[in-house]
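Each lists chain and fold; for instance:
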Amino acid sequence: MIKLDEKTPNIETNSPAQEQLIDSFDRIIDYLRISVTDRCNFRCVYCMPEAGAPVAPSAEILTNDEIQRLVAIAVNLGMTKIRITGGEPLLRKGLVELVESISSHERIKDLSLTTNGYLLGALAERLARAGLHRVNVSLDTLKHDRFKRIARRGELKEVLEGIDAAEKAGLSPLKINCVVMRGYNEDEVLDFVRLTLDRRIDVRFIELMPINWSQNDEMYPLQGAPTAAPSDGEPFGSKGSSITLYANSQLATFNQLFHDSRIKSGGGMLDASAMKSSFVATDEMRTSIEATFGELLPAIIRANGPVRSYRVAGAVGTVGFISQISNDMCINCNRLRLTADGQLRPCLMADGEVDLRSAMRTGATDSEIEEMIRITVKHKPKEHRLEDGIEPTGRNMSQLGG
């Protein structure tokens, strides 16, 4: 079990109703993304190889009881927003029962789920009855032939039926997440916008995230793994820059995951060069949209992520942009991520995680788990450093939890 040798000052552990998790940059951390599986039934070209990515043994995946315990602890610390992710979360056995348990916490204001939508048609009504508030569906094309090229599994028809079922079940506002890629789907941006004109759908265009841009890239040569965690203020990073990634980098209880080897792209997954050449910036998307639909009007919608939302004049739904590369909003990040195998991460795009699974399975008390969560918050970085060649080396997106 991790030794708890760091303490966060001035926290009233006896007043759970009043406690808030606040990081070193005065951000209130009230949003937990929980990956319930690292398995997926798609093989999207920007996410994993054709043959799939390595998955954790079943014994290492958190059980429903363990997830329920961690949710109760997180709620006690002030978490009010929960998102269930994967891999593909609808592959998880007992998911409906897990949703029902999580939804029973009165302090949870928003319980959502991100899915590729393929199994949503059969589960949408049951999930809604269990207490799920809304869903995000990842969908990168509205064309059947392109769907096979991008997702490489399943059928577009089932995904569209899943979206219809979610709307019918009242899982709204329904959000569609579209990763825009040059040479794949950039010419469909306007078609996605049209979905918002007369349906309560929030389409969010996402800049391609460089989860592996440093692979095989001469700009950012791979360095050997450091033999120990850096001391406070000591620089580290794959370009030898003078960046201290974490706000408090005396990491006696904070696991660093720098590796000598990385997950190989192979098997049809976009490599570093293809990722960069496929990148489409938000400004380009917005210019194209406004040339057809006129000026986008600011819109205020319920959202937990780094999204800027707009609306076409007279439209029922909204158009949003997640611009983590061209105009990131890290300074507003309010989340932690729990991987399917029980590692708590303060940042999607930076290494470092705390092993809650081992702590629970070796007898840690709820108070000890609470302290480990506070430690994770304490080490939450101000922002990602992708432009400096620092990116997660230990896991791919399906293993991190999208």
